[in-house]
Amino acid sequence: MRIGQGFDVHRVAEGRELVLGGVRIPDHPGLAGHSDADVVGHAVADAILGAAALGDLGAHFPDTDRWRDASSMDILREVGRLLRAEGSDLVNVDATVIAESPRLGPHLPAMVANIAEALGVEPSIVSVKATSTDGLGTTGRGEGIAAAAVVLITS
Ligand code: MG
Predict the structure, then answer these.
(1) pLDDT at 66 > cutoff 90
(2) How far apart are the first and last CA of the chain?
(3) Which residues pair with 20 in a beta bridge?
(4) φ and ψ of 143, to 5 deg
(5) pLDDT higher than threshold 90 for residue 142
(6) Of 25, 79, 93, 99, which has the fewest CB atoms closer than 10 Å, so is most exposed?
(7) Residue 154 C-alpha to ligand 1 middle, in angstroms?
(8) Whole-angstrom Cα distance, residue 52 to residue 153?
(9) pLDDT at position 6 over 90
(10) How far apart (Å, rounded) are the C-alpha atoms in residues 133 and 93?
């Protein structure tokens, strides 16, 4: 077994659509970024790359035209392919979204379903949780939304 961790944060930006875990969340400003700025997808993808010691997300998905406005679910699909090419499989994924707003509880099951589908795994091995930082710091002031993830893979 091997473990990997990932972390991401993007700035809240008016005029952008908020996408977290592949779920479009209405009535809230989105996140700035070259791709869809989906911090959940990015944290999970980085955790998988880390577990397999395959470098980081920026190395595989640079800020080029190829990945402009790219869906994080497409990135996850590609990372899943890279993982299987190494002969590894996912054991489980556990991600936490860190945001003061919006309320994410109702959206978590859809995030799990999207991530599982993109990675080609059962939803039962994917966990997405939400928390806030009690008004403290970057996420607490609503300046950004962050996500952290850990994954376990077979080696
Ligand atoms: Mg990112």
Answers:
(1) no
(2) 5
(3) 23
(4) -80, -25
(5) yes
(6) 25
(7) 25
(8) 8
(9) yes
(10) 22
pLDDT at 117: 98
Please state the three-class secondary structure of the chain as a single string: CEEEEEEEEEEEEEEEEEEECCEEEEEEEEECCCCCCCHHHHHHHHHHHHHCCCCCHHHHCCCCHHHCCCCHHHHHHHHHHHHHHCCCCEEEEEEEEECCCCCCHHHHHHHHHHHHHHHCCCHHHEEEEEECCCCCHHHHCCCEEEEEEEEEECC
Ligand 1 mean position to 45 CA, how many Å?
Answer: 10
Rounded to an integer, the average pLDDT of 75-86 is: 97
Cis omega (within 30 of 0) on the bond before 102? yes
Give the predicted TM-score (pTM) of the model: 0.97
Q: How far, in Å, from the CA of 138 to the mean position of ligand 1?
A: 16
> Measured in angstroms, how far is the CA atom of residue 37 from the centroid of ligand 1?
5
Instruction: Pick the more confident residue, 62 or 97.
Output: 97
